[in-house]
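User: Sequence for Protein translocase subunit SecE below. Tokens please.
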Amino acid sequence: MSSNAEAPESRGDVFKWFFVLLLVTVGIVGNNYFSAESLLYRLIAILALAGVAGFVALSTVKGKAFSVMAREAKTEIRRVVWPTRQETIQTTLIVLAVVIFMSLVLWGIDSFLGWVVSAVIS
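Assistant: Structure tokens for Protein translocase subunit SecE:
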């Protein structure tokens, strides 16, 4: 039953997405066509077209779902416990030390294996 209720919205969404694509195309072609005009005027036109396209896109089912997801992500970001400056510096130094140590170990293994192979070959 829910798929029948969503069918008209889905058909309407196809037209909305087509309109969004049309607006983006008009913006690209218009920006190219009016390249001799002032950058300010072209920027205002592009922003206006992008605003209308965004408004239309957010009125679709997928656009509404995206909007809900963005709001939930914003809420989750507020719950994150960010590290202090000291923790960040200490962690960075530890990672740097491990990278340097591992690069020296791999260089040593590579040199040893190169020495073994050259001893076997010659």
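The chain has a mean pLDDT of 91.
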